[in-house]
Structures are given as C-alpha cells and as structure tokens.
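Let's study a protein:

___
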Amino acid sequence: MDDHYVQSIFDPEGHLTSQAWPFLAGPGSRKPAALTPGQTKQAEAARLQAAEHLACCDSCLRHYLAALDQEPQIGPQPSLAASVMKNIRIRNRRQDLNRYLTLAAAACLAIFFWISGVFNINLSGLNGEWSDRFVQSTTQIGRKTGDLSDQAMNAVNWFFDQIQIPRNIWSQNPSDQHK
C-alpha cells in the first residue's frame, strides 16, 4: 500500500499539514481529487490517522479549528412549523367550504322538491282507505322524482352535447398545441 496520502498530510515533525483538512472533512465533502478505489482506501486510512492525531495534539487541533472557522457555516434549516400550519389552515378552510356547499346544495334540492310538489301527499279524509292512498302517494312521489331526474339528465346531456371537442385532442402531443 502506497503511503502517499499519509505522508502528504504530516510534516517532518509529525504535525498535520494544510493538506490534511480536506481528508478530515469526511466522506462526501471536499475530497483532494477524483480518487480510484485503491486511492479511496488510502485516503480513508489517512483520514483516520489525522483524526487520531487531532485527538492527541492540541496544536493541530487549534489549527484545525481555525481552518474550520474560515469555512462557510451551514445555518439551521428554516422551521417547518409555519408552512405546515399554513397548509393545515388552507385544508381546514377547504373542508369547511365543502361542508357548507354540500349543506347548501342539499337545502336547495329539498326546497326545489318541496316547491315542485314532490312531497305533496294528500292523506286527508282517510276512511279506511289510508293504505291505498299512501301507496298512491308514494307511487306519485316516485313518478315525480323519476320525471324530475329524467329532466335533469336530459338537461345535462343537452349541455354536454353543446360542447364540441376535437376528436384528436387527446392524441396530440402537448408541445404541438402551442404551435
């Protein structure tokens, strides 16, 4: 094993040189150069020896800390709490809006059915024939509701028939549409 990296990070007196700082930064940070797998093992051995030396030598540790002070410092990450709370508030507003819109739509449908006479059940004057009248009334409700749903379906179909979409809209390349 070539001790090139180990020799380059120590001076003749056994102290670390400035070439040792990139080795001490560890994997994934500033490396001296693009290394082959064999050189990577040597560089890792040099890093371990330099780290051991720092544990024992106060002079090299002071120089290393001074070199670290020269490096740009990474600040703390911005808090996620503000953005998470903002997203929660937006989601809660949407849920509240959906609840109120659903309630409003149900109320409008109930009022519409009431005004159109779907719920008009005439049970007055029952003389023992209440079950026949009740069956007739429920049949009438079913018929009116069916007629109403047929009219609504016809209106929806008419609406979609009025929309004209080119047949090849889905087969076109999106970049071709802007030409």
